[in-house]
Write a structure and sequence with these properties.
Number of strands: 15
Distance between the termini: 85 Å
CATH superfamily of the largest domain: Response regulator
Helix content: 40-55%
Largest sheet: 7 strands, mixed
CATH architecture of the largest domain: 3-Layer(aba) Sandwich
Strand order of the largest sheet: 7-6-8-9-10-14-15
Radius of gyration: 24 Å
Structural class: alpha/beta
CATH topology of the largest domain: Rossmann fold
Number of helices: 12
Order of helices and strands: HEHEHEHEEHEHEHEHEHEHHHEEEEE
CATH class of the largest domain: Alpha Beta
Strand content: 15-25%
Length: 394
């Protein structure tokens, strides 16, 4: 009898375990469940590098995101629920951001991912987000092929296709620069995507490219490139890479007594540009972006005051765009009366004339942002300074 009772208990335990396994497998063909309206806390996942070569983008972005979340919570949160940021360091690495994106969705149950500032990294995370019906809102990716990944993918940055025509117009008509040198960083997806945009616009507007050359990210000796640049007699250098290489190129130009201005995109927007370039970059580098602290409107002025009081430093484009991304997401959730990405994404796609701290933003039918104005930024006395603002023409 003792053995028989034990056998019945084992049989009952096996039945319970089998039932649990079947119940757990029942949803295996569904998309991974994410956070939503049933959660007590609304979680937003940060995507960005806090260490590594592109940390100059992620660190200020995290600060802007944290400030936005604190302000939302001071106002009662979103739909009466507290907002919480979840922060991990993707180190500028595609495998890292892929792992983090999956953790945010499956473990942390976020309702949106904010970032990354880099196009290639954003694409990696966006594919995972789209497959799992999770909204991802990039605060910096400017290259093509981003929102095309799917209807859960958004961004709020000034796009190269709108900025470059305005910048080339300014170079040719305001500065009188007609002869262009173009240098590309070949192992940098941002750079290889931006160079063809510049080349096409320069050609269309009647400019002449007198030199095309290349570098690789991480190089430190640009003697050969600057030697060729000096012989080319270019009026201006268009460099489509990141701030580190830009600073080192201008350092070498200064050594060779080459007086030339370097113009590029918002990949040059990093605090290390001034630290590495020092006197060589002073008013010798100009890049475009969608934010400047020099001529703020009412919303931006309030943001600047709060940011400076909190962090004892000036914000940059990434601080402002991460901040705006959080606030835009909150607006969409409130108007949709839902924190479920499958519900509020449609409200998000209807954004029109949002007066953010990083400029005015409207989403086109394809969810691509139209932002205005284009801000031209230089380095003056070791700090970012506004050169000019240019209108955006769609």
């Amino acid at each position: 009898m003792k053995f028989q009772g034990k056998a019945k208990w084992v049989l009952l335990l096996c039945f319970v375990m089998m039932f649990s396994l079947l119940a757990g497998c029942g949803g295996s063909n569904d998309k991974t469940s994410s956070g939503g309206d049933d959660q007590e806390t609304i979680k937003l996942g940060f995507l960005g590098a806090l260490t590594g070569s592109v940390a100059n983008y992620g660190i200020p972005g995290k600060k802007g995101m944290e400030m936005a979340i604190d302000e939302l919570n001071d106002q009662g949160g979103i739909l009466g629920k507290k907002v919480e940021g979840v922060y991990e360091d993707n180190k500028g690495d595609n495998s890292e951001i892929a792992n983090i994106a999956m953790k945010y969705i499956t473990r942390d149950k976020v309702v949106a991912m904010v970032g990354d500032p880099c196009t290639g990294l954003t694409k990696t995370a966006a594919k995972i987000a789209q497959d799992n019906q999770m909204v991802i809102f990039s605060s910096g990716a400017t290259g093509d092929g981003v929102v095309e990944i799917g209807d859960y993918v958004f961004r709020n940055t000034l796009l190269d296709i709108y900025a470059v025509p305005a910048v080339v117009d300014w170079m040719m008509n305001d500065k009188g620069w007609k002869n262009f040198a173009v240098i590309t960083s070949l192992d940098n997806g941002y750079s290889t995507a931006l160079t063809p945009v510049f080349k096409q616009v320069i050609d269309e507007k009647g400019g002449k490219i007198v030199l095309e050359d290349s570098v690789n990210d991480g190089e430190t000796d640009f003697t050969a490139q600057v030697t060729k640049l000096k012989k080319a007699n270019a009026d201006v250098l268009v460099f489509t890479g990141y701030y580190t290489e830009a600073a080192l190129i201008l350092n070498e130009a200064q050594k060779k007594n080459l007086d030339i201005t370097l113009v590029g995109g918002d990949g040059l927007y990093g605090q290390d540009l001034a630290k590495l370039g020092k006197s060589a970059v002073e008013e010798k580098v100009i890049f475009y972006c969608g934010f400047s602290s020099d001529e703020p409107g009412a919303e931006t002025a309030k943001f600047l005051e709060n940011y400076r009081n909190r962090y004892k430093e000036d914000p940059d484009m990434f601080s402002a765009q991460y901040y705006d991304a959080v606030m835009i997401l909150a607006k969409a959730m409130i108007e949709a009366n839902s924190t479920d990405p499958k519900v509020y994404k449609d409200e998000l796609a209807q954004l029109k004339d949002y007066p953010g701290v990083s400029g005015n933003t409207t989403f086109r039918a394809d969810r691509e942002p139209i932002k205005s104005p284009v801000c031209l930024i230089t380095i003056r006395d070791g700090k970012f300074a506004l050169v000019d603002t240019l209108p955006v023409h769609e």
